Amino acid sequence: MKRYYFLLLMLCHGSLLSAAECEMAFAHGILIAPDHIRILQNNRTHVQINNDQQLFIRGELISLTAEDVVLLQQYSRDLRKFVPEIVSIAVDGVELGLSSIEAMFTGIGSKSQQAEWRELVRETTFQWMSRFVRTNEHFYLAPQSLNELDYFLHGELKPQLDSLARHTVGAVWGALRDALRHSDSNFERSDNQEWQSVGHLVDKINLGLDAKAVELEEKSALFCQRMQELDEVEQQLQQRLPALKDYDVVMQKD
């Protein structure tokens, strides 16, 4: 049924450009903060925009004309609208799956077992969240294209959350059975019941991730257009400020 719904949605939006068809990409990491934007290479800041109107390249303040400032403000404001939206789609997908998994083992097992499960969750999510960071009003997006974000939701996040859910559910029910064996209760949960619980949790996670994938699909044409517009503004800035040509943030992949 979910597959039919997704295909129907694709037909309804047949005129839209899919994420996989968009060749636009972010070539550098982008950090958005309330008072500045930083462009990073290998975790080092090479370009910084302060308050949407001051430009630093490799730590040097660049002299700007009034026309330069207008272009810089447009570029900054577009990044501020766009990057948090992309990051939020990815982070919401991760948090949706993890909150479902963590809610399952709250109050079950010993403190050391819970710490072990939470550490497993943290280890699993560290690699994901190094690419997408949302902390209060700070957003970070690692270098990537729109089709890489599409693959993250479709081909990477879903199977890894599935594996994590199955691993932790098995551990949780094992701990629960051990605890009940030492209690006055004669309760036993069969293996079939246990895996039904796993399946229910995985279905819940997949349903939420499907919704995020559909959200990305619906917005993919708009996202691609925004990146093309950003690229045009960036090219205008580079023509006026040649030092920026070494830091081509938005680009079209060959």
Automatic annotation (TrEMBL):
Lineage top rank: taxon: Bacteria
Pfam families in UniProt: DUF2884
Signal peptide: 1-19
Keywords annotated in UniProt: Signal
Keyword Signal in annotation: yes
The name this protein goes by in its record: YggN family protein
Native organism: Rheinheimera aquimaris
Organism lineage string: Bacteria, Pseudomonadati, Pseudomonadota, Gammaproteobacteria, Chromatiales
